[in-house]
Amino acid sequence: RDNPVIQAEYHLDPRKAALEFEGVRFNNISSFFKDDEITRAFRGRTSIHIYSDVGEDKLVRITIHKVLPTSLSSAMHIDPAFITDSFAVAFGHREIIKKERYAIIDGILVWDNSPEQTVGITNVYNCIYQIHSHRPLSKITSDHYNPETVQHLRNTGLNASVITFTQARQLELYDFFRKMLHEDRVILPVDSIWSTKLKDELYGINLIKRKRCICLGSLTC
Predict the structure, then answer these.
(1) Which helix (H) or strand (E) holds 203?
(2) What totals of helices (H) and strands (E) does the chain contain, helices first?
(3) Cα distances (angstroms) measured from residue 37 to each of 51, 92, 145
(4) Residue-wise over 19-57: b if at least 16 C-beta within 10 A, else e?
(5) What angle do CA 192, 193, 194 make, to 5 degrees?
(6) What is the pLDDT of residues 106-144, one digit of tens each?
């Protein structure tokens, strides 16, 4: 994925690129999640209003105009994709609806890299702080342990527990997420500017040799 040409192919058609470059053949049988359950989950509303653009310095920046507050405890997942130098953030909360626990994803932010632009990590931190100021984060999780990011967040007073996951633990979480999707207990924002990209990402997740999940999408990879 380091090659800009290959990156462009994944952005253009991730499933075709995965077949060509990795030999991964996508079909509905090998999909980790069911398409109709994914589609049904996109029925919520985003709690964050943003504007994303690329400056003259070629840095991707997100400007947050408004974050709707909540009295409920919020959690955030950060996903730095080191290979493609992109970054994604999702935050949400848990609600009890009809005596069942639901996972509500309130917002998604994506800093997407390309050969012509790069991610401004300072802007990533600033957006996290802004979200935290409106809806205090009690927990931050990450797929990868990034000491620099963790240390930076802690040094600036973001008092949240930071948790990273092993590959085995990630697969357990994928299984749990699939169970919640099947039980219709996940609500994702339908009106985010990245909702379509997230939906394609979830459609493209495959289980490989019962050991790991890979995504054929382009949010992170």
Answers:
(1) helix 195-203
(2) 7, 12
(3) 29, 19, 31
(4) eeeeebebeeeebbbeeebbeebbebebbbebeeeeeee
(5) 85
(6) 999 998 776 677 788 889 889 998 998 898 888 888 766
